[in-house]
Every structure is written in structure tokens, then in C-alpha cells.
Amino acid sequence: MECSNCGQALPDAARFCWRCGAPTSEPPLRAGEFSGQQAEPARYEVCEIDYWRGYVKCDFYARGIADESGYEVVRSPLFPWFRNTPPPRDGKALAAHTALVQRLTDTGWEPLGARGPWYAHRFRRAIYDDLEDLAFTAHSRRRDVEPADWPASEASPEAGA
């Protein structure tokens, strides 16, 4: 999908452009998903992408920015970079950044836009106070199939094969 405001390529699940912050259309519901009213989150947690430089390799990481602790959310794959300047927006650095953004959006983080260097994107994720509210969020609308749901067959251990 592309941002209708700036043309930036975005993951299909993105709700906001990570370059300009413009909202995108919400993805359509999949078969079996709940289409009723979603619960409003109590608040949001926010994270920002930064980079870490080692002696020979670097990686990007998303860190929570709500408080002074700066907890780590997730890290990108390592890539070679040994200079004292931020990595360029190409090659393995861009691939590592793209993988990190994909992991964030896959786990419910919404892009909010970028500030500062090219890699410093911000994301937010809803926090719910009540577990009943969580049952109506977009990320828990799908029901996972548990082994207990599998049909018993003559070849299964439960059937005594």
C-alpha cells in the first residue's frame, strides 16, 4: 500500500504513514473477524526506533519512550556498519530497518511518523485497563485453533493409535 499523502510505501496493516503521519484507510476485516464496535483503549504506549553501533555491526531497536526506563521493545537483524555516523538509508541497513518496522506493525504497533534521522520512526500501541475490552481489539478478533479443537482421528495419540 502507498500513502495517499506522500507516496511512501507502507505495510498493508499500517494505519498511519511513518513518513508524514497521515492516516491510511483501515484494512478490511477477514473472514471470521468481529465487525462490531471496538473498545476504546485506556491509553497508548509509544516507542521510537534508534540504532546501536558496535565495533563492526549495528542494529536498530525500538525503545519505549513513555518514561525514563526506555525499555526495549524489539531489535532488528544485525548489519555491518563501523563508522561513527548513523547508517545510510540503503542496503543492509535499510533491510534491517524494514524488518524491524514489519515486526512492530505485525505486533499491533501503529506508525505515527518520523522525527530527526531517517530511521527514527515513532509507533504507538493501545493499552487496555480491562481484559474484557481487549477481546474487542483488532489483534484479538481472530480465534486461534487449539490442539483440543482438532478432530480426533484413528492416527492421533488421543485416539489410542
Structure description:
The chain is an alpha+beta fold and 161 residues long. It has two helices and six strands, in the order ββββαββα. Strands 1, 2, 3, 4, 5 and 6 form a six-stranded antiparallel β-sheet that branches. It is globular, with a radius of gyration of 20 Å. The N and C termini lie far apart (49 Å). The model is unreliable at 28-35, 132-146 and 149-161 (pLDDT under 50).
- Mind telling me the C-alpha Rg? 20 Å
Largest sheet: 6 strands, antiparallel
Task: List how many beta strands DSSP finds.
Answer: 6
Unreliable spans: 28-35, 132-146, 149-161
Please tell me what the overall shape is: globular
H/I helix tally: 2
Helicity level: 10-25%
Q: How much is the average pLDDT? A: 74
Structural class: alpha+beta
H and E order: EEEEHEEH
Helix/strand layout:
Elements: E1 43-53, E2 57-64, E3 72-75, E4 79-80, H1 91-106, E5 110-114, E6 121-127, H2 131-134
Highlighted features:
globular, disordered C terminus, six-stranded antiparallel β-sheet, alpha+beta
Quick overview:
The protein is of the alpha+beta class. 12% of the residues lie in helices and 23% in strands.
